[in-house]
Design goal:
Elements: H1 9-18, H2 22-25, H3 29-38, H4 46-49, H5 53-72, H6 83-97, H7 102-112, H8 118-135, H9 144-164, H10 171-202, H11 205-211
Helix pairs in contact: 1-3, 5-6, 5-8, 6-10, 8-9, 9-10
């Protein structure tokens, strides 16, 4: 698991105060200073709170969304759901809670798309995907840990981009898109299992016993 960014109540509060300014000023120190000023904090503390600048702000924004999603998924209503349903619920919760900040998310993706921020982008995606699986109850520690997260990264990224498109303004359309992607993953998993069973059937029983 990739280590999370620095966490503190002060950083979370500063980020919350900054978000209303991001659609106008982007993920900049200007937006951060304005947010601090409106919350009664000395704007000169901006560089101390987020020494990594825009990348630091965006990483904290993603991490805060992950934490809030995970907390929401602890509700009893999700306890009896199957894993796929819990994954769906976690992604849906994360997107819906960020709906007031769609422009901030759009601008964040623009910053993360810069060549120098490739590592930051990969880290944010990896942490979010891991948080979704963890919220869904996955505790795997074998090789499937990597494959599950790699597959979900594709599903989550595609759904996020759809959510940011004009069609994504319709919450039901977003859920339908997500369902199609998850169904596609399920079909791939079924085909892999069937292929594996067929291959095992081609191996003589004696050889299967020796290789077991």
């Amino acid at each position: 698991m990739i280590a999370p960014p620095e966490r503190s109540a002060e950083r979370d509060a500063a980020l919350e105060a900054t978000l209303p300014h991001v659609p106008f000023d982007g993920w900049t120190l200007t937006a951060l200073r304005r947010g601090l000023a409106t919350s009664g904090v000395d704007p000169r503390d901006a560089a101390l709170l987020f020494p990594g600048g825009a990348a630091d702000l965006i990483t904290t924004f993603c991490d805060l969304a992950d934490r809030r999603m995970a907390a929401a998924m602890e509700a009893p209503a999700y306890a009896g759901l199957r894993t796929t349903a819990r994954v769906r619920a976690a992604i849906a919760l994360r997107l819906e809670r960020n709906r007031p900040h769609r422009e901030a998310v759009r601008r964040a993706l623009g910053v993360l798309a810069l060549p120098g921020n490739a590592g930051v982008a990969a880290g944010c995606t990896a942490r979010s995907v891991d948080a979704i699986w963890h919220a869904a109850g996955d505790r795997s520690a074998d090789f499937s840990w990597y494959t599950k997260r790699a597959i979900l990264a594709g599903v989550y990224t595609a759904t996020l981009l759809f959510w940011l498109s004009p069609a994504g303004e319709d919450a039901e359309a977003v859920l339908a898109f997500l369902d199609r992607r998850l169904a596609g993953v399920g079909r791939i998993g079924m085909l892999r299992r069937r292929a594996g069973e067929r291959l095992r059937g081609l191996v003589p029983a004696g050889m299967r016993a020796r290789s077991a």
